[in-house]
Amino acid sequence: MVKDLKHVKFPMKMYRLKTFKEIKSIEGLDEKHLFDVIGRVIEIHCPEEKLINGKNSRLIDFTLEDPDGIQLMCTLWDEHVSKIEAFYNSTSQEPMLVLVQFCRARVCLKSGDVKICSSYDVTQLLFNQESPPFEEFRKRTSHEQTPMRSIISQSSFKECSSYSVALSGDIEVRTISEIYRDKDVFGDFWVAARIVFIDDPDWYYASCRTKGCNKKLKLKGKWLWCSTCDRNWGDGTLRYRVKVRVVDLDGNAPFLLWDRECLDLIGISADDLKDTHTKGRKGLPKELETLIGLNLLFRIAVRKEQFQNYLNAFSVMRIITDEKIVEKHAPELIQVRDRDLSPKLELELTDEDLWDIEEYC
Ligand SMILES: [Zn+2]
Fold this sequence. Notes:
Elements: H1 20-24, E1 35-45, E2 48-52, E3 55-65, E4 71-77, H2 81-85, E5 97-107, E6 114-118, E7 124-127, H3 132-140, E8 149-151, H4 162-167, E9 173-174, H5 176-181, E10 187-198, E11 204-207, E12 218-220, E13 223-226, E14 231-233, E15 237-248, E16 251-258, H6 259-266, H7 270-276, E17 295-302, H8 305-308, E18 314-320, H9 323-329, H10 331-335, H11 338-341, H12 351-360
Parallel strand pairs: 1-8, 4-6, 9-10, 16-18
Antiparallel strand pairs: 1-3, 1-5, 2-3, 3-4, 5-6, 5-7, 10-15, 10-17, 11-15, 12-13, 13-14, 15-16, 17-18
The structure holds zinc ion.
Zinc ion (ZN) binds near residues 210, 213, 215 and 228.
């Protein structure tokens, strides 16, 4: 016989979740206290090895975001590294929700920020489950999301965030020809380049309207269908996906700009632009032409696919638009005129591309 137990002291909740806000308020922080956290993974750093107290330790850093956009850095140690390492360089899991059970807070000595880390052998990681805390989290997550990225950079033990790495000047910038030369080197790299034209007339896609999904919708009969939610929509939320051709001093490549970066650069949403745009060449909105001529630092994902077909664009994971920073890393690029860059466009180009270049020069 099974009876309901209704004693007040009997715990009815599976997890002891703390909000990011609670964790980040240093007040009353007890580094020995174990608690649970749920968040969306937006960044995974490359795993690293460190000599700590004469013992070789492994660690991996990743960043969680809550529905309010608050971010929290996490570090997993040793046997816990493999739990998240599998997702490094894989972006197919979006949105990737994780519940970290039995973690503890630590104050980062360099930044003074609170982060969380694994605790000996008790910490557990649960991914994309259907249980109440996950359902609740999904409900609270909005449309606009930071896309997930993998980062090859120093862990929190050198710098406290990858963004500060970018701004502190020790980012390593590679040229386009270096990227194409090292055909077996994959990862995320910085490239300084200029956008010279829009490479593809398709500049947006319809995405799922379910909160937090954003999956590209497929046409199925007269409906648009989301394969993640298995749901039909009459229309989707438009998101940017703009393929541009970029050049630097010794090469050129197709880059793919996603919604967040285009929003940054263009200033209005894809939905609004579709409604209000003035027609430019090839039916493209004239507003997109503001991208042409921009010198930017691009963080691009270099994968096998780009070497298999040179028309496969490199996904842009992040951009730096600050002119001073771009100039610092690519002074020659800023100074050179377009007409001195264009003779170097020697790739297999379509007639349309050539027409574009001619027009542009
Ligand atoms: Zn969906």
